[in-house]
Amino acid sequence: MRWLVFGSYDVRRHPRIGVLVQGLRAAGDQVVELNVPLPLDTAGRVAVLRQPWRLPLLVGQLARCWLLLALRSRRHRRAIRRGSAEAVHGVLVGYLGHFDVHLARWLFRRTPIVLDHLASAVGTARDRNLAERGGIRDRLMRMIDDAALRRADVVVVDTEEQAAALPAHARGREVVVPVGAGTEWFAAGGRAGSAGGREDDAEAPGVRVGPGDPPGAVRLNPVAGHRIQPRRDRRRDGDPGPVPARLRVIFVGLFTPLHGTVTVGAALARLADDERIEVTMVGTGQDFSACRRAAAGNPRITWYDWITATELPRCVARHQVSLGIFGDSGKALRVVPTKVFQGAAAGCAIVTSDTGPQRRALGDAAVFVPPGDPEALAAALRALADDPIRVAHLRAAARRRALDRFYPATVVAPLRQRFAVTGAPPCPYPGGAVASGDEMFPGAPASPADPASPGGVTTLGGRPGPC
Description:
single chain; alpha/beta; 6-stranded parallel beta sheet; 18 helices; 16 strands; 38% helix
């Protein structure tokens, strides 16, 4: 099949679309990206909702993106009209495509449109306490969702719970595609495994470098309050390292209510007297200040404003435990966050909230705690610090689970199967089969390198993107 991946998405901020692109290519499909990133991240869009006078900025930026997308799509539209061999069989609109899907439908009227509906506008607004149920903003967000969903032939969601939350008119057109993780996360996990899961924790002159510092990362010095540049790591990948004396834990996120970072901060405060546990917190956002205040008594936390998308997989892979989400909102109970898939692919033990979607995704390859319960989270981390053998087993189990279920070519299989019923020609690669024998990941589907599809957290104006 031939796909056109279309829209104003930004794969650096929202790695989900990058995983889909990698997966479709690995499955043997031809993929062309027609992408003009909108220079306004999720936080900026939320600011428009909170401060409507910013709306002209969003409209102006979106209009520019649409003009360029329309101009650059002419070749593809001509190929479709002529029925040439270069004509695409489907248009995939990338995440945050609530508006882009309207342009796609207008430009490609006779081509099946697939909308990656990873998160609804109304769900995001409610999760961030920006819209009361039944209020004006709530109704506006619902109208935006409904209009976008009506334009799509196939609606992609990430969990069964998200599918059940779709409006009635979208039922029957949905397909569940797990978020998955990009190949760069599997590569980082493979390197960390061959190196014994540890690299030097070097000391920069006069200041302690936090656990898991990657080369080139910028850290906020919690004492002096200014940015420092840690020394570049001197070890080579592949060198064996000693078994770490401390449990290294990492959290990456936007500090939204969905992530439950206030719960994380309260749990870390309860671990202030446990010198065996070191924690790295990456990102900023809505609940950052509250989280930091809650965790202020713990001296073994390193805080990062951001880590580049290129370095983030390697940084996470140098830790033993990756934290998921701990919020108790309706949305938090319906999703499996990107960070869970990425942490598992990187070879970390996963600790996350006990919800139906996450239990189905991870099985016995994770530690689950009740949502919104800092005491339970602290107890879980203490138990892992007590039992390094269990940590090793959990890391191996998470990695196996990721290789079996979260690899890009695996997660896109439901989409390819569902898309076949929309009228696209039969796939020339039956069942999506591809050559196996990936040397780095034995037993995993082979996938070509795709440097244009990085994952993880990046920045625009100093703010991290969702992970």
